[in-house]
User: What shape does this take?
Amino acid sequence: MASLSLPARLLRFRRHARNDGHGGVVIRPRSLYIIPTRQGLLLALVLGLMLAGSINYGSNLGHLITFLLAGVWLSTILHTWRNLLGISLRAAQVTPVFAGQDAVFQVRISNHSRLARFGLTLRHKRFRGESTDLPAAETRLLHLSLPTQHRGLLRLPEITLQTIYPLGLFRAWSYAELDLCCLVYPQPATTGTPPVEANYTASEDGDRGVGADDFVGLRGYRLGDSPRHIDWKAFARQRGLLSKQFGGDRTERIELDWDLLPPVDTEQRLSLLCRFVLQAEGETRSYSLRIPGVVIEPGQGEQHKQRCLAALALYGGTA
Amino acid sequence: MKATTDQSLTPGLQLQLYLLTGLVLLPHVPHLPLVVSLFLFAALGWRLASLRLPRLQPGRWLLALVTFLGVLLIYTQHQTLLGRDAGVSLLSAMLVLKTLEVRKRRDLTVTVFIAYFVIVTHFLYNQSFLLLIYLLTILIGHTSLLLTIHRVTPARHFYEPYRRTFWICLQALPIALILFVLFPRLTQPLWHVGVDAGARTGLSERVSPGTISQLIQSSEVAFRVSFKDKVPPRESRYWRALVMWDTDGYSWFTRKEPPLGAADQALIPGDEPIAYRVFLEPHHQRWLYALDLPASRTSNATLTADFLLRASVPVSQPKQYEALSYIDSHIQSSPPSQLRRALQLGNNVTPRQRALVESWQAGGTDAQTIVRIALAYFHEQPFVYTLNPPTYPNNPVEQFLFESREGFCEHYASAFTQLMRVAGIPARMVIGYQGGEYNRLGDYYTIRNYDAHAWSEVWIEQQGWVRVDPTAAVAPERVRSAIQPGLGSIGEPIRFVLSEQGWLGSALGNVAMLLDAAEVNWRMWVLGYSRDQQFSLMREFGLDFLFGGGWTAITLGLVFGVLTLIGLRLLKQGEMKTPPVVRCYRLFCQRMAAIGLARTAHEGPLDFSARSCRQRPDLATQIQEITRLYIGLRYGNRPTPSQWRAFSDRVKRFRPRRVSRAG
Assistant: This one.
């Protein structure tokens, strides 16, 4: 640990909100920090000037008002502190995003006391999340958007819950670590066409193939045809027994294969594959994905897409 | 993101801010130059208009120009930018100009802080209780704006932020009072720029005919006195303030301040001394009032050779002091140079005056006889004691004595003193107050400006300086009852306050007394709270050993104590109340845990009951009954009190014992 820099070593002494035993964290007095804000310091300065003036002109009522505001200044330390105390945070959910987009983390924030809380803001460093008021015994959902740069799993970093309520003179905050990860897909490449042609193989049976995917036409019933292929509607119209015919190989099957891509670096390949997945999905075509270590059979649909994108996002990860 | 948009302020909030700004400036209007007031309210009006029509909002350059013009205006009006009045103008302008650029939350915060400062400046002009209440209300209004901008959702009721702010301020009040009582007060200002004396009616160091009769029109309080035990009769209550040695024949004054102290042995004490405490209103002068004649033993004041009390600095705050006086006593000795000074005359002594004096001297040459004859002269001749005597522009004494014979106390005193000097008897004029009105409710006497009085002192061998009041010879009622102020026109004899009043009069009088008693406490204990009072208060509580370093410690300790109480209260406030049923059931669970049957977090009451009954069949009936009652009370439709009683009884009687393994 001697290799840690000084700030990093100091960070280890930072107290975090404690685990509350229900998968969240709760803000306890020992994990709560509080310091005056810039406005708080400004008011202290103004009060100093007011006191100097009151002393100079011997104004006792001036003293009284100054001391009253000083009392307010001091007691807002407690009000600010209380406003944050006992708040609990719990990871809610997060939707996967593409690298470069903002990951929107959702955090559930609850007030288990009879005291209404106000102006609670979620943030991470300079990224401000949402603010909310929290009536007694209520739970709300707060969003914190963080920019993403790389594909992979983005863990919700150490977040800060802060408040400057009631008067903005003090800032109380607490650090919390929640177990919430955002899946970041690779950024889709802006150009590039899928290597479809290279892998297109026409069916030997031509259009009248025995595939099962696309409806081709009708023909007379032959013994052995599956009853499921009989056009019962036609039969009902007294047109005799007709069998539906299906072909499959006429439509393109896109095979997205790592090895078929131009020889660019890993991330670019992943970007390209990501683009192709989205394209194929957009054209509602079936596609399969083959990258080192992962093979995903042909398929189509939202779930299939997510599987593929997740595989791309997590490629090479220490899974 | 949301966080960036909520920096802006809603129009409703801005409107509140600008209205409060107007209210905070309003009490300054009488003190500020009219043009400055117009500037301030015009700028505020502009701001309000731009709230409706945003294109009126001034740009940065226009704002800079307006600021420059404002400062220029203030400079031309006050001829300076320093000092109290100019400072207040500048601060007010700052407040208004800041409102012109309010856009975000930060701007509002800064505006509120400036408003706080403006609130404090009001007390430089007026320290009334009503003003304090008014300003406290506005302070709460401003503070609630701060509170409002730090919430996210608007309050359901408009008064909610006000109520919260009120509570915060109320919690801060004990801290304010501790600091107010214990914070050390200075006796000297930190800097002198702009500590200007307020104009106030009162005695002046130069008395011309008409000076005091002008003062009589004012019922402003000069001071109040509470006597320790013995109260001297009204006709002996002469309050001494100034001695006038010199005259130019027109007015009386003192060229040289008398030396301080050294008057100790010169006093012949009469009877027992009279002890009293004076509550003095600030008059921005150094003289203090003392009952004729004060002894030297007086707290925080010095005594001059003329037996006048003097403060070390001009009295600019309400002041309290204790004094000791001997009535019916004389100043025994006076250096010869002073006696010569007490014979000096103006150059307008006429032969007629000399003839008058000579006619008196015919009756006897010793001072006492002449004084007696002179007083008889004033008494017997048709002199009129009036509040509005004619003006005597040329030779006041001559015109008063021989032409109109209408005068007020200063006319009698100055004429008498001058005639004594003509007769070769050293004489001087004394200025002060006479009498005082009793306040039954506060057990003190109020001496107002209309009690101002002038009398003479003459030097009589073997006796010393003897007080002679020629007014008493003309109008003995003057020293026996108070003058009704504000009545009477020129030449009309003075009406004196009659003791008989109707029930309404006496009721009103009681109300006035109550108000005056409240005011005296307000002025003395709040406005005039000083270092001396601080010390005597500490001494009373036996805390005077703290005058050293312990002072700060105890102040901080008390403030910290209050903060702890506030913190505990806040913690208590937020606690979730556990319903008694749940608390009772928890007790049951604790007892179960004590015999080794702890309820796990995921276990519902029924599961727990089933498991416990399996493990301890001997307790099954009890456990099942308690669980049944608990579920009925907690989740049932309409629990009855009898159910609750049965439940709590059963839990209380439930004392399970561990089964021994061996058995």
Q: What stands out?
A: The first helix of chain A runs from residue 6 to 11. The CA atoms of residues 88 and 252 of chain A lie 53 Å apart. Chain A touches chain B through 57 residues (CB under 8 Å). The longest strand of chain A covers residues 102-111.
